[in-house]
Write a structure and sequence with these properties.
By secondary structure, the protein is an alpha+beta fold. About 45% of the residues lie in helices and about 25% in strands. It is built from 5 helices and 7 strands; from the N terminus they run βααββββαββαα. The strands form 2 sheets. Strands 1-2-3-4 form a 4-stranded antiparallel beta sheet. Strands 5-6-7 form a 3-stranded antiparallel beta sheet.
């Protein structure tokens, strides 16, 4: 699932490697179940072989367009965050890729609707130095990914649980 190690630069390592949440396959799965059920029902009640073949051909067409293509799109879409860049790769027959160097990212935000919160995913919104926003939809554990990218932007946090106000008080300042 992650990008090949040979495509990483020297001293570059993977921080997060994921693909779109499986939520993207819920509608295609529902379409598959309904198509199979309706096809079986129609073939069972229609006694004409030529009509049966037409029904089956239509079912195969629906399967290819509304089930197989979304599955392949889900399977071939990958998001990788390294210590140097955000890498997106997608495409079934032709691959498209986009790399954003981590230092060019100026803002990291997330958006989670009700269904996203129930399923544990969301949209990651990244703004680069030109204020152009990149939306990565249906990222699993989006808040964890957002935190990891924010830590990369700010050079990491040594003690994640320490409150900066308390640190100043402990130092006597």
């Amino acid at each position: 699932m992650a990008i090949s190690k040979k495509l990483l630069g020297p001293d570059e390592h993977i921080v997060v490697a994921t693909r779109t949440h499986v939520k993207a396959l819920l509608v295609p799965a529902l379409i598959l179940i309904l198509t199979a059920g309706l096809t079986g029902f129609l073939v069972a009640i229609i006694d004409v072989k030529a009509v049966d073949w037409v029904v089956i051909a239509l079912a195969v067409g629906v399967f290819l367009v509304f089930v197989l293509v979304p599955f392949l799109r889900w399977l071939t879409t990958e998001y990788t965050v390294t210590n140097r860049r955000l890498i997106t790769r997608s495409g079934i027959l032709t691959r498209k890729g986009h790399d954003i160097p981590i230092p060019r990212i100026s803002d990291v935000a997330s958006d989670r609707g009700v269904i996203d919160r129930m399923l544990g995913c969301g949209t990651l919104i990244l703004a680069d130095a030109s204020e152009q926003k990149v939306h990565l939809h249906d990222i699993p554990r989006v808040e964890e990914v957002q935190l990891k990218i924010a830590n990369l932007l700010h050079g990491g946090v040594q003690d994640e649980h320490a409150d900066p106000q308390l640190k100043r008080l402990d130092d006597g300042t």
